[in-house]
Specification:
Length: about 375
Amino acid sequence: MTQPQLYQSYETEKIISFFGSLGEAQSFCNGQWLIFPRTAICLANVGKGPKISFFENGSKFYWVADQPYHVNNSGTYWHIVPAQVVGSAGKERAIHLFASPPDSQEFLYLGELEPSYGAVAPGNGNHGMVWFALRPALPSALWVRFGGAPLGNLDFTPVDRALDSLRSPTTVEDRLGVLRQLVEFWHGPIRPEDGFCDAELAGVPLPMPLRWWYRWAGKRDEIMSGQNILYKPAHKYWQLAVEGNLLRFYTENQDAYQWSTLPHGNDPPVFGRYQSTDPWAQEGVTLSEHLILACLFEAVICHAKYGAAGSMEEEKFSEIARRIPPVAIVPWRWMDGTGFFAGQGFFIHATGRNERKGAYVWIGAKTEHPLQFLRSYVGNDWDYVAI
């Protein structure tokens, strides 16, 4: 029996013929799922979500229920998809994804889905979502066609040049210029309305780099907040606050690690601690340097559409680090030391590095192209792979 070819378009009848006849399949969710004895097929209309199925990144696919389906009894939120594609039961069949973009009535064959282990409650106009890992990752050339946000400027040369400048003595203005380059590479141009006006910042004690940030891009929360949180001049939960003689301005999202700085100054030092009862300790970086690392961190964790995450032996990581230079800023003390590496459109943060245990690494890029040399380093046991 012939097999479908990656990224080729097919009509529904042809898709079914690859795996058998319609009479051999169990049909679920108005024909969006077809379960054959040895194969499962997903026929999905894919767009921007969250009311339609969508890609969160190059390898994470969310199937979105357009009706309140109840096709199995496997538990809370899982009832919207066939039991044969969930958990251990999903390992009994290959699960093939055929996706129809908004500009086509046909379905493109995009590869195989791993069994799902994640479901989301109904909301945002849908009746629940179940997510799957896709192998291979969706090519960036198809990303926008399937509803992904435009990837923007892919020229990483100005970013590399800006980060390389940190190896020489710099002023705070120089470092804020580096931050500007990073922000515009990852997030596009900043508009005047993205910043706070002076009236909105009145009465808030702010050292110069924070004042610069809030005035320029402070309303673009996603740039500095996601996995961690940059406090705001006025907010119900994440309010900038002076405690003693320090200004708390940044935290891990569950408050497991906190950062503070002086409430005044041109570029004051940054302090960190794990518990609110712990004494503050110097991080070894200035505020402008911390903002550069925070931008890099959120880009890799939350905004990179392609990348990988997993444990890596120190020897292998050192090979990568020789190719991708470290950012010339002292690593955060958080998570046993969080170091950053960047170059050639490739961004890394690595934690807990030591010769015996190696490191846990998060790798991110805007497209899959800078990451191809990673294939020999990434194992099947990695937590996330989209290259």
